[in-house]
Every structure is written in structure tokens, then in C-alpha cells.
Amino acid sequence: MRRDGRRTVILSVLACLAGLAASGPAAAQNGVVIEGPAAPDAPEVVARAAEGRVTVRAVRLAAPLVLDGLLQDPVYSQVRAISDFIQQEPHEGEPATERTELWIFYDDTTLYLSVRCLDSQPGRIIANEMRRDGNIFQNDNVQFAIDTFYDRRSGLSFQTNPLGALRDQEISDERNAPNTDWNAVWDVKASINDDGWSAEFAIPFKSLRYRSSGAQIWGINLQRQVRSKNERSYLSGVPASYGGRGINKLSSAATLVGLE
Q1: I want to staple 190 with a disulfide (CB 3.0 to 4.6 A). Which of 16, 69, 128, 151 is the partner?
Q2: For strand 32-33 and strand 28-29, is the pairing parallel, antiparallel, or unpaired?
Q3: Range 106-118 burial, b when 16+ CB lie within 10 A, else e
Q4: Cβ atoms within 10 Å, residue 44
Q5: How confident is the model at residue 129, as a pLDDT?
Q6: pTM of the model
Q7: What is the structure's pLDDT at 211?
Q8: Beta strands 100-106; 59-60: pairing state
Q9: What is the pLDDT of residue 26?
């Protein structure tokens, strides 16, 4: 009986370890363990796991984007958008009620993030702040955070509204009080249209710090706020308990691959 009991315990432990391996991080890529599903095979740009983890792919451009916020370059019809954002508020974990489409591009010098914010009631879009680092949280807005060292704790965030206002900050150790005095050289253009609004971000790589040259694995998340509905949604879901500072929770961010 005692020997059988020990055997049962050993088998249980092995079963638990196997379960952890099955639900744990995906295989390493370029020496870095991806915390989420394996990288999507091109031309796919996003992979989502049942437990909520997300991996997205950046696409290299042959020529720079025309930065005007209109999203009219041919590449937008050639590359599938990343969508299916998840609500944080008011209904945690449910699909966003307004569709958000995201593209991640890059060339030799610049990281581009393009967002199309569809809105079923575009007449209710709120946009009245243009000051640098102003309080655009009271406007419709999008904010993305990038974790360039993939430490799942620290990074940088960039934010805009339908008027193209610029706001940036430095996130340290997922703190609720990021460094808003940090300013980088970057640009964004936005446009309001009959279907909602859109924006194109251009962040020079020289404005960022990251690991040595070569293939990169970063963390990334995007938050969208629809002020008329008090709805906040994310590319990679964030618990409601984190509130408006959820973008700082980089341990919940998606994994970004494809940068070289």
C-alpha cells in the first residue's frame, strides 16, 4: 500500500508538470521564450490562445507610409488587420462593441502603428484636446505600450486622440504613476471620418532603447477608449481591477515578433 501510494503521488506530480508544460509559454524564438501562442506564420499577423494570450507579427514595408491618418496606402488592403479587441470596462472579458483594427509595420528606421477606430455613432466622438501631454483621457483615444526588452514589467507608451494630439510616458515596473516627463521624438496623424476615426503613429527606432541589432521580441498592448460609452478595450485583455492604468500592466501585453 505504501509503495503504491508513493507511485500514485509521483504519477500525480508528473501529470501536473505535463499540464503546466502544455499551458505554459510557447517555444523559444531567437533565444527568447514567448509568453503566449507561437508566432503566427506569415502572412498571418495574429495568434490568440484560449487562455487569452496573444502574439502578433510586424510586417516590413518596402517604402515608408504616407503619414496622414487616412490609412489609404495600398498596404492596408494587402495586410490583414489585427482585431477582436477585449473589453476591460464596462463588461470585463467580453468582445469590444466597436471594432478596432490595428496594423504594425516597420522599415529600416521607423516603427509604424496604424489604428482604425470604427464607431457606430461617429457624431458622438469626443475630441477637444491638442496640448502636448495634455489630458486626452477625457477624449476618445488610443494608447499603446511597448516593452522593448520583453521583461514584462517596463516600457514606453504613446497616446493620441482623433485630433492627433501627442502624449507619451515611461513605464517602470508596472507602476500606476509612470514618468510623464519623458518625451521622445515621434509623430502621429489622425483623421475623423464617417465611419469613426483613424491614426498613424511613426516612432523612429533611434528614439527607443532595445536589445542589440537583429531579430527582436517585444511586448505590446493597445488600449482604446470610447468616451460616449465609457468603454475601454485592449488588444490583449487586462483585468478590470487595473482600471485606466491597465496599459501599464505589461505582464498582460501581447508578444510582438517579426521585427529585425
Answers
A1: 69
A2: antiparallel
A3: beeebbbbbbbbb
A4: 11
A5: 96
A6: 0.87
A7: 85
A8: parallel
A9: 52
